[in-house]
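Help! Submission page says 'invalid entity' but I think these are all valid:
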Amino acid sequence: MAPGRTGGRRDITRFTVRVNRTEMSTDSPAERPLLEVLREDFGLTGTKYGCGEGQCRACTVLIDGRPEPSCLTPVSSAAGASVTTIEGLASDGDLTQVQRAFLEADAAQCGYCTAGMIVEATALLRRNPKPTRSEILDSMNPHLCRCCGYPNILRAVEMAARPEGDDA
Amino acid sequence: MPEGFRDDLFEPDRKELGEGPVYRFALDRREWVAAMGAGLLVTAAGEVALSAGAAVAEIPPSTRLHLGEDGSITVLTGKVEVGQGSRTEIAQAAAEELCVAPEDLRVILADTSVTPNDGSTAGSRTTPSTVPVVRRACAAARELLLRTAADSWDLDPTKLRVDAGSVAHADERVSYAHLARSSRLTSTGDDAVPRRVPLTKVGDWKVLGRSALKVRSREIVTGAHRYPSDIVRPDMLYGCVLRPPSYGAELMSVDLAPATRLDAVAVRDGEFVGFAAKTSHEARNAMKACSETARWQSGPHPSSEELGTLLKARAQTSGGGRRGPRRRESGDVTAALARGTNLAHSYEIPYVQHAPMEPRAAVAEWDDSRLTVWTGTQRPFGVRDHLAEAFRLRPEAVRVIVPDTGGGFGGKHTGEVAIEAARLAKAAGKPVSLRWTRAEEFVWAYFRPAAAFEVRAALNGTRIVAWDFTAYNPGTAAIETPYAIPHVRTQYFPCDAPLREGSYRGIGATGNNFAREVFMDELAAAAGVDPLEFRLENLADERMKAVLRAAADRFGWPGTESFGPGLGTGIAAGFEKGSYIAICAEVRTTGGRVEVERLVSAFECGAILNPRNVQAQVEGCVIQGLGAALTEEIRFEGGRLLNGSFSRYRVPRFQDVPPMETVLLDRTDIDSAGAGETPIIAVAPALANAVFAATGERQRSLPLRLPRA
């Protein structure tokens, strides 16, 4: 993987990204999707591939706090940034409020979209701790769940936003 | 009811994909052995049998239950988890009979070297078939443990109780783990296994019938669960496969040298051309470099615009077999049609794609001539056999493991990706992970069949006296009418279809019930009767009447207060795979498209095992059905898909979910049936009927479109 080792790899560069509070580096072509770097180089498989065109948002991660589709983010543009994946939300085994709400609302069917949903909801509640239902819908709408478990996912986000209220 | 109706209940749909393996390669063979800790093994080959003892090092392929000497409880089934809740339901079933909590036991699913072959995970069969088998094995084990304890205490077994993983009497208590180590138990033979132990009665259920949270949810919300596409093996490479530019295109030549120059593994074996490299990015680059050198030859391929006429023209009208045409008649339909007021219409449904969130994925690893594949499939043993055939191995030399997978919906019955990954791994001499792209999943996975229908019926007043239903290509599920009609003829013709077809949620029932339930609405209008009343009048099946009434009551049918310009309500019902659905819907058509204002579903599947999951399955199934009713339609021309991506193939999103209510009827007096498929079959006809009510114009094809202004 050393730069310039073969003709086909002359564009290899070392990129350093702060992932889940840890500095991580990889030697990679600049255009390689962050999603693949996370999964293949850093072993963080919690972030999922769903479409490669930003249409399903299963691959959503936080980049400097903003939810972004990692499938459309070249690793070069994440260099030097702080990235949070689904694996970086819970600390010392303590689930976040959003994760607990997803558990309690039984918000996963196959669960493949769940990481992206949780990351998105986390970003939403950080910038808007008391979102209205329509604000939740606007934020979550880019995310696909093909099991169509939308009602329970919505309930989970609402529970996370109002942990003391009832979830009826 | 027409003759043969009950036989149809669980007959596999004739459109279930019946292909052989997509490739065949040459290889050799070897044996496979799997081991687990010592303990008590209960196997489940037909009836329950026992093989016990500390000497057990190899698990017979039919092992159903393992009670470890360490206190562990392991339940095994060949079923897979694709989001429908099988893992949780199996855990509940075993926990109920073993008198433990679901979280106190482990469920191993779909590992062909370890679990019993419970067939494919399809046709809503886990609940009616696998759950009882698991319960019987666990009940037998419980009874055996009880008798062993009674024996050691020299007490009558009826004096003992079983709870929380132990057998108790007065203040004495002995754990399952202790009993599993007992020499009394290990010295018994197969004859000692209790036969036909009664299962826990519904009224005594402590675990079943109550909502259980999804097993392994924690791994999902933390990102720790490894789906098939997340499996990583030492030294693993990432693969990709060169696909033809269009359906039917044949590869004339390709130069693989560019891939080799990029340090990628490249292999061509007949039609298969694949690449593997240290990253998927490198593998793709190698493929791109080679694809520029590929020469293809393609022929003509029809367009989706001509599907209806094409299917009828290509109908297979002769021949037989399980996949051939089928004709059933009770009474004298021709004579009865001649006597009543006739109505006849044609209907069509397009191809739709399952598009599960996780595209097909597999990791293959060779150890000499033994092959292990982790893959997401609904047919683990079928895929094992395909792998064995493709590589000329004995099935025992192939192990297929199915990690809980990211969606199926009937779309993952095949093992193409497993075979492709195995071929790449063989060429590379290293494990290979192959994940299909979304584009590959759209184009090269199989589709829910497109279909055409011709329906004719005769009315005598408000009663249907003759029914003549001809279906081209949908499959046979729910093809027989659930209505009580004296003269019924049902014909099914498979067609020489332009696209690869296979199972789907409800498969043939989606089209058959769409055509039937829209036609029922047309008959009701012709008879001048309310569509709900018309259905009830022509039904004998009380369970179907009950869901219709339940949906109508909750909805406030016919919802006349909301009628206005561009507003309408519709109703439809259906029966399939042992369960019943009725849906009432209100739509608005003034916004230039069909907007669902409100939707009420009533569903009944016998005794409910996990209410929360049944609710989620019904809701998800209904919402998925909104897609097939309103937006989903695969379009193709010249051998290429015109809309093979999520940006062009619109599936339901959060904002498409209408206000909806779900009424679950819990019939604890009826054996449990599955819940993940049947709800979808009433969605499209309910909406089509509502659109008619709103616009006065009948929509007879899917997806529903508004009449041109």
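Support: the input was valid. A stray whitespace character was the problem, and the output above is from the cleaned input. Chain B touches chain A through 65 residues (CB under 8 Å).
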